[in-house]
Amino acid sequence: MKKLILFLILSAFAVNVYALPFNSNTRAEHSKTDTDSFTGNLSTADTTTQKALDTIDDITLDSTDALNELFEGVTVAVITVGDTTPPVASGGLYITTGATTVEVLDFYDSGDDNDGDFSDGDFFGLIVEDADFTIDFSTGTNIKGNADTDFTGIAANPVLVIFVWRSGVWYCTNLNSGFSDPLTFAAKTVMKVTLISGNDTLEANEQYNGRVFVSAASVLNAAGVAEGMEVVIVSHTDDDVDFNPDDADQISLNGAAADTAGDAVRLTNTGEILTCTGISASVWNCVSDAGVAQ
Question: By Cβ atoms counted within 10 A, which residue in 15, 161, 201, 290 is the most buried?
Answer without folding.
Answer: 161
